[in-house]
Amino acid sequence: MDCSPNLHRLLAFEQGQWLEELDLLHLGQTLRQQARQAGGYGGTPFDVMITIADVLEAEHGWSPEQSEAWLERMGVWEQP
User: Fold this and answer.
1) Mean pLDDT confidence for 63-74
2) N- or C-end of the chain: fewer Cβ atoms within 10 A?
């Protein structure tokens, strides 16, 4: 495939965006595991999960419903 320089830059940018999103989701998973061990999200981990959801919406095109569903699956709203 012969890519123009602009197409190559666009593909590199999109790949970077995907990798950033994956990093955020990985961080969320790590926080989820820590919360399970600690008996729930508290303080900073809770705030970081909300921030991850906000960034996924603002910078990665997630809808508010999608990020809310993700927070639900991650157990952020569960009481310890």
Assistant:
1) 96
2) N
Query: Which residue type sits at 33?
Result: Q
Q: Are 52 and 71 in contact (CB under 8 A)?
A: no
Helical segments of the chain, H only: 5-38, 44-60, 64-73
Instruction: List the one residue out of 53, 17, 60, 18 whose CA is nearest residue 32.
Output: 53
Task: State the pTM of this model.
Answer: 0.81
d(CA 2, CA 16): 21
Instruction: List the structure tokens of 43.
Output: 């303080």
- Burial class from Cβ neighbours inside 10 Å (0-12, 13-18, 19+) for residue 5 reads exposed
